[in-house]
């Protein structure tokens, strides 16, 4: 970049879009000086966030989370496995994060994205160390059988703050997860009980009497901030992430304990005041996200009904995500449609 | 305050440090760094012409390759590569050699805890050995939180697995300057208190983290003194390589 004055003078002469492309840093700094960001947000405000539970009908638990236009689809598939010798009465969780080429122009087909394994590792660390899930709850028969939860997260649109959206989708998918009914058959093997069978045909008692949900304690929520000079920008977009490179991700759980404070390098050094600032912003964000997740769960449980309803629900979820309708309105619409069907 | 550590160290005591430079013949710069039984070898090749795809050609590019002691590289190694890369990018003056790539190869010789900090220290010494222009050095340290809330420094592998949480911290080295004290303060804190990199693992309170930071600052002063000492050329013939 040339002299600050040179580009400053240009700003009055050239088109805004041209200025944005030619002097991206200068363009952002001009906004920051006015305490505003190019998308009209104040510095500390995160983008609009939505969660839709049950987006994938074939999975045991699923969720679609959007932060601004960053979109993540998370789905959990449960499988029965033999637990390891070291932890005979614990289940297991395998987390994978995928970045298909559709999510960003940076990802090329055939070549895996560099960021994907890093986010994947970070997610696994966060979910497992936050103590959200008690792995003992995933046990079926001690030493013989336990649940293996395969959590796959697909990034559909990568527009910054990938980790935040991925963690939110993962947490939402776990809160939607219903553990299927299984029973021991005559050979002592675990079989999944088909729903139509009911309880009548079973020779032995089902190990899992009914579909059950996991008890989630102290759910982790995260916020990524950019540090630039003395400014702290919450929830950056992809453009902001490329222009200003110092990222700090803070993960706090709902009991306000620090799960992770992640700052991988970056030209700006984080002093105590900046760290405290990021933590304070994350505290606010945790409250917001708790509400959004709670809303998502209540909308979802209001919708639980027959299989007829599920198809309508999925259509509506797609509708909710396209338009930014108020969730309450959608809920009313859903109820009225169900009445008509009956 | 007294915690029994397996090797009889006090909580603030680091393991014996060792650093040797210019140990590889073909590399442009190389260094080995060991903290107790953890040992890492780093080699630097470059600056070579051209940058990789998706990198800014107006700046120098740093490429990090992490070689584990055994086996294939997995997600953990990929993450370490990214952290080391971004940490080194922040200490190098990237505008001096634009459109070049400097490769840093990290070979783990033995892992006995605090592996990532050890690798960052080794990489930093290797960059100095190769004569890559740097803004300042980086010193990395691992702090571990015991159940009681006490902080212990430079844990071994056993301690890392056993204890509640640990934090990897990277700070700039302390500045020797002719300027009067106070002129180098940023936000009322000396420059070496700024965090370059922070990676945490396990649950802790925010206060615990701040406590780790304080201990990290104290330990990094010792480490940076050691690093500075070991980077001084022992005899004039050795300095020819850095020019």
TrEMBL record, chain A:
The protein's matches in Pfam families, at most eight in alphabetical order, are given as: RNase_PH, RNase_PH_C
Give the main location. cytoplasm
Q: Which SUPFAM superfamilies match?
A: Ribonuclease PH domain 2-like, Ribosomal protein S5 domain 2-like
Q: Keywords of this protein's UniProt record, alphabetized?
A: Cytoplasm, Exosome, Nucleus, RNA-binding, rRNA processing
List the molecular function annotations (GO) for this entry.
mRNA 3'-UTR AU-rich region binding
UniProt cross-references to InterPro entries, sorted A to Z:
ExoRNase_PH_dom1 (IPR001247), ExoRNase_PH_dom2 (IPR015847), ExoRNase_PH_dom2_sf (IPR036345), Exosome_comp_Rrp42_subfam (IPR050590), PNPase/RNase_PH_dom_sf (IPR027408), Ribosomal_Su5_D2-typ_SF (IPR020568), Rrp43 (IPR033196)
Membrane-crossing residues? none
Q: Name one GO cellular component term.
A: nuclear exosome (RNase complex)
Give the UniProt record's GO annotations in the biological process aspect: exonucleolytic trimming to generate mature 3'-end of 5.8S rRNA from tricistronic rRNA transcript (SSU-rRNA, 5.8S rRNA, LSU-rRNA); nuclear mRNA surveillance; nuclear polyadenylation-dependent rRNA catabolic process; rRNA catabolic process; TRAMP-dependent tRNA surveillance pathway; U1 snRNA 3'-end processing; U4 snRNA 3'-end processing; U5 snRNA 3'-end processing
Cytoplasm as a keyword of this entry, yes or no, is: yes
Highest taxon, organism lineage: Eukaryota
Looking up Gene3D superfamilies in the UniProt record yields: GHMP Kinase, N-terminal domain (3.30.230.70)
Q: Where in the cell is it found?
A: Cytoplasm; Nucleus, Nucleolus
Annotated Exoribonuclease phosphorolytic domain ranges read 46-180, 219-267
Q: What family name appears in the similarity comment?
A: Belongs to the RNase PH family.
Q: What is this protein called?
A: Ribosomal RNA-processing protein 43
From TrEMBL, chain B:
Q: Name one GO molecular function term.
A: RNA binding
Report whether Isomerase shows up as a keyword of the record.
no
Q: Which Pfam families match?
A: RNase_PH
Determine the domain of life of the protein's source: Eukaryota
**Mind listing the UniProt keywords for this protein, alphabetically?**
Exonuclease, Exosome, Hydrolase, Nuclease, Nucleus, RNA-binding, rRNA processing
Please state where this protein is localized.
Nucleus, Nucleolus
A single cellular component GO annotation: nucleolus
Would you kindly state one Gene Ontology biological process term found in this protein's UniProt entry?
poly(A)-dependent snoRNA 3'-end processing
The segment(s) forming the Exoribonuclease phosphorolytic domain are 13-133
Q: What is its main location?
A: nucleus
Glycoprotein in keyword set: no
Return the similarity comment: Belongs to the RNase PH family.
Q: What is this protein called?
A: Exosome complex exonuclease RRP46 homolog
